[in-house]
Write a structure and sequence with these properties.
- This protein is of the alpha+beta class and 408 residues long.
- The protein folds into two domains: 4-249 and 393-404, no CATH class; 251-392, Conserved hypothetical protein from pyrococcus furiosus pfu- 392566-001, domain 2 (2-Layer Sandwich).
- The protein has 13 helices and 21 strands.
- α4 (63-79) packs parallel to α6 (127-140) and α6 (127-140) crosses α9.
- The two termini are 31 Å apart.
- It comes from Enterococcus florum.
- This is DUF1015 domain-containing protein.
- Pfam families: DUF1015.
Length: 408
């Protein structure tokens, strides 16, 4: 069983929701956040990327930034732009993109479930990124960004959520970044809340889809408060939005290289891939990668004998890393090597062509998306995917839900 409980959300006043909601802090840089928040005092970027309201020469990790975030949060609450619920509720959050919808349950999950392995991960985290969110959570005494979780689809949970949407009016409905429509319902019926809670009590595990750094940070803050005698009931929980696996779409996470191909490049590729000059920009199936060298697109199809049975090593991103980036280019750690970069699938193959054609990058690799079933299999095996294996769209907006830790 997993712990999934209602909570008293801090959320926008209904008339302010669209203006408050912002892209996640980790998909935009400070300059982009400042531009997006220009002339919008309600933007959640003033809390989540508070450096935009400080001199440009201040580091986004300066203590002043976290204090500014806390000050803005207090001001948003004082102004009534954000309000805290008076009773514990669940919240449904539906996102619709390109005619396809996914609905998640916004709730609190347990730091103890994470430490016990009931909330499963598939990525490593970087300490410097954890420290940033730890400082942000401490300053605000709140989880300001939700963690994107998933579970294996459950008929009872699905029926309860569908019935609520069919019989209640959404409190928020607006279309925002990338033409995604966002809708939110407040689930405040104690009987339905109890049914949902009991249904999740029968779920074996939750899976982090996106937000590994936020999860680690929230858990570490909660454990630190527990150790220091500052624990509250809320500090042992963290903010999550939980989606059934069948509704989620993983997009491709493409790669570009800034290094000249070695003399044996094509010969090296042919050891493990069938190489065809095809003009095709997007892979048709798993096991294929499209390569752009500035002159043409090639289809690389992995040879069956080069594929492992291991749930991690058989992934397209792992095969490309081993047989191409490592063996042919000597790129061992793609998290730190400056000769490689990553391009989210929402930018399309035109972005890959643009980067290579500019002369700054030499090669681009268009990937086939990792399957959700692969993510679950890797997590169940207690293993870790290669960095940048998954790109989820649409993105969950920040500012629609906050969780007060109630320790100050």
């Amino acid at each position: 069983m997993v712990y999934v409980r209602p909570f008293k959300a801090i959320r926008p006043a209904e008339e302010k929701a669209e203006q408050v909601a912002a892209l996640p802090y980790d998909v935009v840089n400070s300059k982009e956040a400042k531009e997006l928040a220009a002339d919008n005092p309600y933007s959640f970027f003033h809390i989540d990327k508070a450096e935009i309201d400080l001199p440009e020469d201040i580091s986004p990790y300066d203590p002043q930034v976290y204090q500014k975030a806390a000050d803005h949060l207090a001001d948003f609450l004082q102004q009534g732009w954000l309000k805290k619920e008076t009773t514990e509720c669940y919240y449904l959050y539906e996102l619709t993109m390109n005619g396809r919808s996914q609905t998640g349950l916004t709730a609190c999950t347990s730091i103890d479930d994470y430490t016990a392995g009931k909330i499963k991960k598939h990525e490593f985290t970087r300490p410097e990124k954890e420290i940033d969110r730890i400082n942000h959570i401490k300053a605000c005494d709140a989880n300001t960004s939700p963690i994107f979780l998933s579970y294996r689809s459950n008929d009872l949970i699905q029926r309860l959520m569908d019935d609520w949407k069919a019989t209640h009016k959404a409190v928020y409905q607006f279309t925002s970044f990338h033409d995604v429509t966002h809708k939110v319902w407040v689930m405040d019926d104690p009987a339905v809340i109890q049914q949902l809670q009991q249904a999740f009590d029968q779920v074996d595990a939750l899976y982090i889809a996106d937000g590994h750094h936020r999860t680690e940070s929230a858990v570490k803050v909660g454990l630190e408060k527990r150790k220091n005698g500052q624990e509250s009931p809320e500090s042992s929980r963290f903010l999550s939005i939980i989606f059934p696996d069948e509704e989620l779409a993983i997009w491709e996470y493409n790669r570009v290289l800034k290094i000249a191909p070695p003399a044996n490049f094509w010969e090296g590729l042919a050891k493990h891939y069938q190489v065809e000059k095809s003009g095709v920009k997007t892979p048709a199936a798993a096991g294929q990668v499209q390569l752009y060298d500035g002159n043409a697109w090639y289809t690389l199809t992995i040879k069956p004998e080069s594929v492992s049975d291991d749930p991690v090593e058989r992934l397209d991103v792992a095969l490309l890393q081993r047989y191409v980036f490592d063996q042919l280019f000597g790129i061992k750690d793609i998290r730190t090597d400056k000769r490689i970069d990553f391009v989210g699938g929402i930018r399309g193959t035109a972005e890959l062509e643009k980067l290579v054609d500019s002369g700054e990058w030499t090669l681009a690799f268009s990937m086939y998306p990792t399957a959700m079933s692969d993510l679950l299999s890797v997590a169940d095996a207690g293993k870790i995917m290669p960095p940048k294996s998954t790109w989820f769209e649409p993105k969950l907006l920040s500012g629609l839900f906050l969780h007060d830790l109630e320790t100050t």
